Amino acid sequence: MKRFIIIAFISILITPLGGLGLHVGNEPIGLHRSSLAIKEVFAAEKGYKAGMIHPKTGKKIKYWTAPMDPTYIRNEPGKSPMGMELVPVYGEEGEEKVPSSVIRIDPVTIQNMGVRLARVKRKALVRNIRAYGTVAYDERHMKVVSAWVGGRIDKLYVDFTGVEVRKGDPLAELYSPALVSTQQELILALETRGKLWKLGNQESLRSASHLVEATKMRLLLWGITKNQIDEIERNRKVKTHMTIHAPIGGTVIDKKAFEGQYVKEGERLYTIADLSSVWVLADVYEYELPWVRSGMPAEMELSYIPGMRFKGKVLYVYPYMDEKTRTAKLRLEFENLRYRLKPGMYANIYLNPRMSGDSLVIPQEAVIDSGVRKLVFISLGKGKFQPREVKLGMEGNDDEFEVLEGLDENEQIVISGQFLLDSESRLSEAIQKMLEVRQQNSPTTNTQSMQMEDNDLDMSDMKMEEDDLDMSGLNMDDVPATSKKQNP
Fold first, then answer.
1. Is residue 294 part of a domain?
2. Given the DSSP bridges, would you call strands 327-335 and 23-24 parallel, antiparallel or unpaired?
3. Is there a single domain that holds both residue 281 and residue 374?
């Protein structure tokens, strides 16, 4: 009977607030709080603990937790260290079969979080690469003209840089004492061979013939052509000057020869480049290298010819990186029609590689990259979400990634709000581990906080008459003075 009086006293203190006009829903606040207080007291007395079925919700109570501290977990109702009433956490049907990392969120919360979903697609992954390059000479079509024998330059046929020459055109005339003496040796050897042939001395004839061939070979190695040697053999006259001819057709891009200059054997005189095709040296970033390969098509734009694109191909990918810029160099080849491409020009390079076949593709915003692993949240339906570790491949256009492992086509993934889901998932998993540890350490469900004996809240002998809670005689005079001041 004593406990009943306490309950009635609580209801009497709260009920007068309803006369102040304060309501919760359609009920006055006094009556609402009175009914809640009675329900909470009776609920506590009934002793709903973890594992029981709540009669009002019909759901199984997993545990009780503090509203402001989800890690404060108890197996029965009570108060948190902050003095707040613990709230029950209910289990869902069949959740024992669901991994602890799966979380469930009601539709209203999903909408408030701004969660957006998308499907895993299978499509061709494309990457547009734009790079800056410089037009350069094609090194395969360049020749250096040097002095094959020491001497003096007496005449220049090409006397300035930039001259267009054809193959075989004369470049300069060189006087060389060594060349003159060698020609004299050739003429003498020819005359000796002729005399020995008339005498019929075969052994001496063979020696003279060997000397003639050796002298001719020396002249050939010095750059004298076979036609010039044949002319010397016919005329038996020494040519005092050797004419230097262009080895290829092209443009003279470097000239170091001057009339009257003495040159040594091997000294460079001219550099000739064939500009019918040119190279373009471009730099691409490290993350773009997987898309680049030799032989792939390329396009180029020049600022001085707007709107026109030149077509070429990637000739070579250099096997090293620039340590300062973290870029790799590409060598591209372009045909130089009408000689519009001039070495030294800046150019914009466009590469449009495409992955062979179709790939699973997801947007970048769906990935949570921790630096150690990459996670994507999967929508399981009915407000359930699960994190899944994925392995990503190359990055394509529009911030799309190729999925190598972890996802299937048409699966729904979260592309917005996944960071909040990740926090909730980690918290749910941590709480589950805490519960497992508690179950292993304490076989019973009793906790040290709020230990109650069954007979303390035994109200089976208590009876309530209809007039026990008759409050019809109460008025505003029963309200404490403090309440009147707060509610004028």
1. yes
2. unpaired
3. no
